[in-house]
Specification:
mainly alpha; 6 helices; elongated
Length: 196
């Protein structure tokens, strides 16, 4: 049974190859093909657009990776600055920190610009993917330093808990402190009760 089916498939392939060669579809024939396959203009444009879109997506991914790397570098520099032994070493680290932050700011601006380009120039390309290219906010050096200290971490956690559970800060009545005895003319007429 297996031999019979393999012989039938082999014959079918051989007949198809001979028929293709007779129609001029073979590459070895001297005559040009009867129908030259041309890519329609619209399809060619779509392919070029998809290629451009892929380049933007690739650059966006590379920028995001560089941003994460710079943030880690900044955190390490802050850690070393906080544990610096002398003032000269701390000042050198501050200079390096400022330089790294400037580079990070430039990367963030490039990332946000590329994300906007992707969102508005190619809204229909790659719709099947779940695209999330949100704007990344530029943090100050103080924000990075606060994230490194325990106090900063506690503040961040408290803020997160308050937003999650909807806790609002209540203003305690300060009426007791602000109340002052009013000066009335009838104040002297009021009896005072003394307790023993």
């Amino acid at each position: 049974m297996f031999r019979l089916s393999s012989v039938v498939v082999l014959c079918f392939c051989l007949v198809a190859a001979v028929a293709d060669a007779n129609e001029g579809g073979g590459e070895h024939s001297g005559a040009p093909a009867a129908t030259a396959e041309k890519i329609p203009f619209e399809e060619k444009q779509q392919q070029e657009r998809t290629k451009e879109w892929m380049e933007v997506v690739t650059s966006l991914s590379a920028l995001k990776t560089k941003i994460k790397s710079k943030e880690e570098t900044i955190k390490e520099i802050i850690h070393h600055k906080n544990s610096a032994k002398n003032k000269a070493e701390a000042e050198a680290l501050v200079g390096e920190l400022l330089r790294e932050h400037k580079e990070l700011t430039k990367l963030l601006e490039d990332y946000n610009q590329s994300a906007q380009l992707l969102r508005y120039r190619y809204p229909d390309v790659g719709i099947t993917e779940k695209r999330k290219y949100e704007k990344i906010e530029i943090k100050s050096i103080d924000d990075y330093e606060d994230a490194q200290t325990i106090e900063g971490q506690v503040k961040k956690t408290v803020a997160k808990v308050k937003t999650h559970y909807g806790v609002k800060e209540e203003k305690k009545p300060v009426a007791d402190v602000e109340k002052k005895p009013s000066i009335d003319n009838n104040n002297l007429a009021q009896p005072k009760i003394l307790k023993k």
